[in-house]
Amino acid sequence: MEASNMNMPQYPESYWLNEKGNGFGQLTEDTQTDIVIVGGGITGITAAYLLVKEGFKVILLETGKVMDGTTGHTTAKVTAQHGLIYDELITNLGIEKARLYYEAQDDAIKFIQNLAKNNHCDISQEDSFIYATTDEYSEKLTNEYDAYQKLGITGSLVDGIPFDIPTTGVLSMNNQAQFHPVKYLNGLLKDFTNQGGTVYENTTAIDVEEGTEPVVITKKGQRITCKYVISASHFPFIDMRGFYFARLLPERSYVLGMKVSKEYPGGMYYSADDPKRSLRYTPYNGEKLILVSGEGHKTGKGIDTLKHYKALEDFAANVLGISEYPYRWSAQDLTTLDKVPYIGPITSNQNNIFVATGFRKWGMTNGTTAALLLKDLILEKSNPYQQLFSPSRFNPTPSIKNFISYNTDVAGQLIKGKLEYVPMHPEDLKNDEGAVVKVNGKRRGAYRDKDGQLHIVDTTCTHLGCETAWNHGDRTWDCPCHGSRFSYNGKVLEGPAEKPLKKIEEQ
Ligand code: FES
Fold first, then answer.
1. Which of 186, 179, 237, 181 is nearest to 24 (CA)?
2. Which DSSP letter does residue 219 get?
3. Average pLDDT of span 363-369
């Protein structure tokens, strides 16, 4: 494969987040409402939109800016083709549950397509394709096709994909969609606030007091008394003995937004084999911006994350030819032990505190599914997907194996980071460089910004004490244990950690 000579954008920036919405104020005092939703991504906003329409008073809280998390960094494919999943679900959970999983996604696609009609959100109907490049994955594709047949999914094995990529098998799923997630959700937010819903940005919820009238407590100490709480904050902002930190696996992946020299034929593509490659386009100033994504790895274990961007860039240069490269960004995804999201009461003995998390890379449909299901749970209406997604389910195979190896890995990380030999000192760093360094004999994280100023933090994650690693692609400190991420000066960007990394003044 030829290497690209194109200049990578210096800093990460998501194309979607160029679309500005209304800003919202901070919560400044104690208050009361029917429902508090924590997390302003697709799940939280869709649930807020649905619940205010049912006549509830709803407050939506977001720790930063709405849609600034995973929703603003997605590839925004609206599809039920979630990689190779249906054959695995049939094997592990049985045909009925596999069918329900598909139907939930299909309902979500129809829901989005219906709302998108009035939303000017660049939605288009597209076929989706998974392609294999090895014999091993060709066989898996055939098994996946058999699963489609059993589940009644419309799709077929086709001859190839319209790119210069030699394939050993291609499986299509017809009539899927893609859209601009921020335009779509700005439309829902507008309807939500027009109907009396309230949004507070820069307001971090940190705890909930349980009870018939639960109280959400913010970092600044405000209290919101309510009847129901929904945690839609990607990683749940509370755990309540649900042990989510031990049953969610964080993974980072990368997205490039580029103009290409070859004609892009439409359609959405995803590789079955590793390393993962994904393609789609979006309208861009009368032309097409191609989103090239993949290179997923466990958070905090990417070593030099710029290498992941570079690998995608080389792939794009080879397959499509790059004429302009204005955007690059990364996203964090959470996977559950059986690959089915956790949506429902946070623990089996709660009936007014709900959670939605673990959508893998497929948050557009899974997040919408979550909002639709949570609305029914609050209305006490039966919903066919309630059991499938219940966070209290326990499917011993193969999750128990993953659970043990994952927690062994966390235990290993706890020790490994502390024992690691640290050869660098802050004075070794060039401008715009970060690394684990030694300061007065202690392990520290240092970043020298582009003006030459040093920012030093304690690298110990404030969640449960693992050691964070420098992610140069995004200029962040990432934790390998449960995926918390911090800015170069320690601010929490992504939980479960709630407290910033400690800033270190001595140098
Ligand atoms: Fe749990 Fe860092 S996220 S220890």
1. 186
2. T
3. 98
pLDDT digit string (tens) for 306-329? 889 999 999 999 999 999 999 999
The predicted-structure confidence for 22-56, as pLDDT tens digits, reads as follows 799 999 999 999 999 999 999 999 999 999 999 99
CA of 167 to the centre of ligand 1 (A): 39
Looking at the DSSP assignment, which residues form a beta bridge with residue 395? none
Q: Is 286 left (phi over 0), alpha (psi -120 to 50) or beta?
A: left
> What is the Å distance from ligand 1's center to 353 Cα?
23
For residue 297, the model assigns a pLDDT of 83
What is d(CA 288, CA 277) in angstroms, rounded to the nearest whole number? 19
Across the chain, what does the average pLDDT equal? 91
Ligand 1 pocket mutation pick from 249, 406, 461 by most atoms within 8 angstroms of CB: 461
Report residues whose beta carbon is within 6 angstroms of any ligand 1 atom.
245, 461, 463-466, 479, 481-484, 496-497
Measured in Å, residue 411 CA sits from the centre of ligand 1 at 11
Q: Using the mean position of ligand 1's atoms as its centre, give its distance from the Cα of residue 485 in Å.
A: 9
- Residue 478 is assigned to a structural domain of this protein: yes
Instruction: With cut-offs at 50, 70 and 90, classify the pLDDT of residue 171.
Output: very high
Nearest residue to 413 (alpha-carbon basis) of 473, 463, 457, 476: 463
Closest CA to 436 of 464, 466, 473, 477: 477
Task: Give the tens place of pLDDT for each residue, 459-473.
Answer: 999 988 888 989 888
495 C-alpha vs ligand 1 centroid, how far in Å? 8
Top mutation candidate among 407, 409, 481, 494 for ligand 1, by most atoms within 8 Å of CB: 481
- Chain segment 6-26, per-residue pLDDT in tens: 788 888 899 999 998 879 999
Structural domain harbouring 462: 426-494
Atom 4 of ligand 1, nearest CA residue: 464
Structure-model confidence comparison of residues 481 and 161, the more confident one: 161
Could you tell me if residue 446 is inside a domain?
A: yes
CATH number at residue 437: 2.102.10.10
Residues 6+ positions from 261 with CB-CB distance below 8 Å: 320, 321, 322, 323
In a domain, 111, yes or no: no
Give the number of domains in the chain: 1
DSSP per residue over 57-86, as a string?
-EEEE-SSSTT-SGGGGS--EE-S--SS-H
CA of 447 relative to ligand 1 center, distance in Å: 21
The pLDDT assigned to 439 comes to 84
- Please check whether residue 297 is in contact with residue 308, taking contact to mean a CB–CB distance below 8 angstroms: yes
Query: Of all atoms in ligand 1, which is nearest to the CA of residue 484?
Result: 3
380 assigned to some structural domain: no
How far away, in angstroms, is 471 Cα from ligand 1 center?
15
Atom of ligand 1 at shortest range from CA of 480: 2
